[in-house]
């Protein structure tokens, strides 16, 4: 019996015979591998277009994860989303990147944000964030994911302000060093971390507005999975493509799916974004985008449509750039009753 090695699993090429405990008849089970050996015409077109695309080649040359990085760079050049926050302009920012895989927008945020900013990418797909950013695998439609995002930024704020995470030097009035306090015990630091998490939850339970709405900028580039054109099928990642709004080539279907994901990003902004914060949403143009624009105007002072030069001319993709959230609290029932 020969075996084909698929990832870490051995798949036999011959059928397995199993006898049922309730019957004398044998049940024949077949195991097989699924190999993507022949690319479809659409996959070939996509591959050829990628190979000849200026921004794809430039992204590879500049060591960027994908050509999407140039779209965010061009948005920031025009609107200054990482530098024109009205409150605390030069202070570090908390940036939330939705649909972050493979991490191109993380890279741009790291480059453009002030020093010591916190960047968190959220995606259903697992991915390796660039050094300096963090990643969370989760469904943004889940309330539990929102709570984990709050925990991340709340803990980051407490770490920054809490002296337990730094070596402390106590000086006398004349400047002479009196004592060095060093926390060398890993166990002690873990205990302190747990205490900080408890403090974070207590402060959020006390409705501290700073911890209820911790994010300065939200970026949404959801619905952009990459087509798999070679190798063995991988259910861990591919099933996500089928569940989420993958671009199908059908303009109406893609538009409606993008509207659903834009609504999810808007709900996230309502729940997590600070007053005067910014939101960037990618969408497919269609008849429903005017309704989305009305909703955005209720939440933000400034809403503009923008299509970066890096977008392909034939593509229906576009962006809403929303600046200046009107207030911390927004009534979602009132927001989504717009007709």
Polypeptide structure, described:
The chain has 339 residues and is an alpha/beta fold. It has one domain (41-335): Vaccinia Virus protein VP39 (Rossmann fold, 3-Layer(aba) Sandwich), CATH 3.40.50.150. It has helices spanning 41-52, 54-61, 68-79, 104-112, 143-161, 186-205, 209-212, 235-243, 251-272, 289-299, 332-335, and strands at 3-6, 9-12, 16-19, 26-29, 94-98, 118-123, 134-137, 168-171, 177-181, 215-220, 273-284, 300-306, 317-325. Strand 5, helix 4 (104-112) and strand 6 (118-123) form a beta-alpha-beta unit. Mean pLDDT is 75; it is low at 1-34 and 178-183. This is rRNA methyltransferase 2, mitochondrial. It holds the Pfam family FtsJ. Belongs to the class I-like SAM-binding methyltransferase superfamily. RNA methyltransferase RlmE family.
Amino-to-carboxy terminus distance: 64 Å
- The main sheet orders its strands as 7-6-5-10-11-13-12
Mean pLDDT: 75
Largest sheet: 7 strands, mixed
CATH class division: Alpha Beta
How much of the residues is beta strand, in percent?
Answer: 15-25%
- What form results from the Cα inertia axes? globular
| Main structural class | alpha/beta
SSE string: EEEEHHHEHEEHEEHHEHHEHEEH
Nearest-angstrom radius of gyration? 25 Å
Low-confidence stretches: 1-34, 178-183
Helix content: 25-40%
CATH superfamily: Vaccinia Virus protein VP39
CATH topology grouping: Rossmann fold
Q: Strand tally, please?
A: 13
Annotated CATH architecture: 3-Layer(aba) Sandwich
Number of helical elements: 11
| Total number of domains | 1
């Amino acid at each position: 019996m020969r075996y084909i090695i698929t990832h870490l699993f051995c798949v036999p090429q011959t059928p397995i015979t199993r006898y049922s405990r309730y019957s004398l008849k044998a049940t024949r089970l077949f195991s097989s591998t699924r190999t993507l050996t022949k690319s479809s015409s659409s996959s070939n077109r996509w591959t050829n277009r990628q190979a000849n695309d200026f921004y794809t080649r430039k992204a590879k040359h500049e060591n960027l994860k994908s050509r999407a990085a140039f779209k965010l760079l061009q948005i920031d050049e025009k609107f200054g989303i990482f530098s024109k926050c009205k409150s605390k302009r030069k202070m570090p920012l908390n940036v939330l990147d939705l649909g972050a895989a493979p991490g191109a927008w993380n890279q741009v945020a790291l480059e453009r944000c002030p020093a010591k900013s916190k960047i968190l990418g959220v995606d259903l797909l697992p991915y390796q964030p660039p050094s300096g950013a963090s990643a969370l695998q989760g469904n943004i439609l889940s309330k539990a994911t929102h709570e984990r995002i709050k925990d991340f930024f709340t803990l980051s704020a407490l770490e920054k302000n809490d002296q337990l995470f730094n070596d402390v030097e106590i000086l006398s009035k004349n400047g002479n060093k009196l004592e060095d306090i060093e926390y060398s015990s890993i166990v002690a630091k873990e205990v302190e971390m747990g205490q900080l998490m408890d403090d974070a939850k207590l402060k959020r339970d006390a409705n501290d507005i700073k911890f209820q709405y911790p994010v300065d900028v939200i970026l949404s580039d959801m619905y952009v999975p990459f087509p798999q054109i070679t190798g063995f099928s991988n259910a861990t990642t591919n099933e996500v493509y089928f569940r989420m709004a993958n671009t199908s080539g059908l303009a109406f279907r893609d538009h409606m799916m993008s509207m659903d994901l834009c609504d999810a990003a808007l709900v996230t902004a309502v729940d997590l974004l600070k007053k005067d914060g910014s939101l960037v949403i990618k969408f497919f143009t269609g008849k429903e985008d005017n309704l989305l624009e009305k909703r955005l105007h209720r939440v933000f002072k400034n809403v503009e449509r923008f299509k970066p030069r890096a977008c392909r001319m034939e593509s229906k993709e576009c962006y809403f750039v929303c600046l200046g959230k009107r207030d911390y609290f927004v009534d979602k029932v009132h927001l989504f009753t717009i007709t």
